[in-house]
Amino acid sequence: MTWCSLDDAFYDDERFCKAGIAATGLYCLATGYASRHLTDGVVSRQRLQVLAQGDIDLIDALLGVDLLAEVDGGYMLADYFKGNETREVVEKRKHDKKLRAESAARSRWPSRKPAEPATDEVKADPEIPDF
After folding, report:
1. Where are the domains of the chain?
2. What is the pTM of this model?
């Protein structure tokens, strides 16, 4: 799980005051989306329109105060990396955490075999006879 970050004084930025509360809400939604989906601050045009519930004026308001910039395939959120990590950093942290957990499990249970992958196949219980 990732978390998005907004400076707790972000509302002091004049750009948010000029864009308005609804556009500021859209910026917050888009920041959460970008963080969750590890897009490095880029949100597709289609996704931003969905988040804006079709209100293109909100997107224009963010563009007008430089809180969004148009990029190939969508928009880049201004200041996204002032508190949010890149996809590369998040994936490395998750990978390292997984390796530490696996190592700890091997230390704790050295004779235990790794779990078999789950399947949809139902195995009969050998202790209960079929009738």
Report:
1. 14-81
2. 0.73
